[in-house]
Amino acid sequence: MITKNINKLPKSIVEVTITVPWADMAQSWDATLQRLAAEVELPGFRKGAAPLPMVEQNLGTKLQDEVLKTAMPNFLIEALKGTDIVPIDYPKYDLLVFTKGQELQFKATITNRPQVSIGQYKGIKVTRPTPKSVTDEEVQKVIDDLYKRWRSRPGNIQPASAGQQASASGTGPSGSISFNGGKAAANGQVEGPDDTFAKAMGATTLADLKAKVRKDLEANVSYNNELDYEEAILQEVEKITTVELPEILIQDELNRMLVSLQRRVADMGLLLEDYLKSQGKTLEQLKNEWRVQAEKNVRMELGLAQIAQMENVAISDAELQAEIDKIQDAKVKQQFEAQEPRLHLRHALRQTRTLDLLKKLVASS
User: What 3-state DSSP class applies to 188?
Assistant: First the structure.
């Protein structure tokens, strides 16, 4: 039977020291060894067929590392049952004592969910934005951009330079020559998008392609409108949420914002260092500028979680598993065999469901 010692520190920090007898650890050790053995190939044996003692010797310290990777989070979850401690971030683990055949002792440092006070969330009033209409000009711009990219591909329509002899795949209407199904004017000027181009894009006619583009643009407008609506609701939640913010959550949010910026900068073909230099800022200055927004984001997240608790919003095991089953990548799906990723996914699903509840409350108010 595991034992625990809980030490509550300022700013929602909790240290939990846990001792696990070998009798409880043995199952984790054996299960991990069996899992790793299936992938090990030793001389003279087929992959996964080597005797377990040989595999264990071959794995060395890797086996213990893999055991602890799943055992410590699982035993922490067990230790926290029946307490008022709700981790809101990945715990920090410190191994104190462990040898095969002996007890495991480790310390987990947790950021506990802080006390949150929230105002009258059922009285939130937000006006849903009216979707703007998609114009003919916007549709045509997409068509023109698609056509320009399509035309530049080898084998598709290319403008004929002056005096250049063009190889025709067939003769088109009077005054034009058909190039690989497209049309070029006799004077070398390429005509605009036509049905042939539309078919290359997966439509039946140019009119059909325009209809598809319009539908996609309208769906995009509707999607962005919904995001704006949800953001407006969350901003109202943030305004009525009172909480002492743990510093680790603020730093986590700043790091998340930084990763997002790095991706956008990379899409522009730049390094973050080059971007910061162009802005005349250091990384520390950038984070200082972001801090107020990061605090708002964290407050919003905690406020939403508090509403979820007050409204008894829950995600069942079956619903959680159904979401995991949607994952196509086998390696990614395997990560959810551990408890921590499952907890975080359950939390994300709960937050989404709570936002859906708020949208209904706002609509009826």
Answer: coil
Q: Which of 177, 154, 153 is nearest to 167 (CA)?
A: 177
CATH assignment of 3-113? 3.30.70.1050
Rounded CA separation 105/109 (Å): 14
E-assigned strand segments in the chain = 3-8, 13-20, 92-97, 104-111, 116-118, 170-171, 176-179, 182-185, 241-243
Do 188 and 162 contact (CB within 8 A), yes or no?
yes
- CA 20 to chain centroid, in Å, comes to 34
Q: How far apart are CA 233 and CA 141, in angstroms?
A: 33
Report whether 25 contacts 35 (CB < 8 A): no
Question: Largest Cα–Cα distance of the chain, in whole Å?
Answer: 91
Least Cα distance to 339 among 97, 81, 11 occurs for: 81
Structure-block tokens of residue 186: 């006799």
H helix count then E strand count, the chain = 12, 9
Inter-residue contact 160 to 178 (CB < 8 Å): no
Q: By the 8 A CB rule, do 249 and 89 touch? A: yes
Locate the domains of the chain by residue range: 3-113, 126-130+245-364, 137-239
Please, are residues 146 and 333 in contact by the beta-carbon 8 Å criterion? no
Count Cα neighbours of 11 within 13 Å in the Cβ-side half-sphere: 7
Which residue, 114, 154, 123, 107, is CA-closest to 7? 107
pLDDT in tens, 64-116: 888 899 899 999 999 999 998 988 788 999 999 998 889 999 999 998 988 89
Alpha-carbon distance of 360 to 130, in angstroms, equals 17
pLDDT per residue over 326-361, tens digit each? 999 989 999 998 888 998 899 999 999 999 999 999
The helix (run of H) or strand (run of E) holding residue 214 is helix 206-239
Phi, psi for residue 109 in degrees, rounded to 5: -100, 120
CA neighbor of 112 nearest in space, from 91, 135, 88: 88
For tokens 């987990």, name the residue: 108
pTM higher than 0.90, yes or no?
no
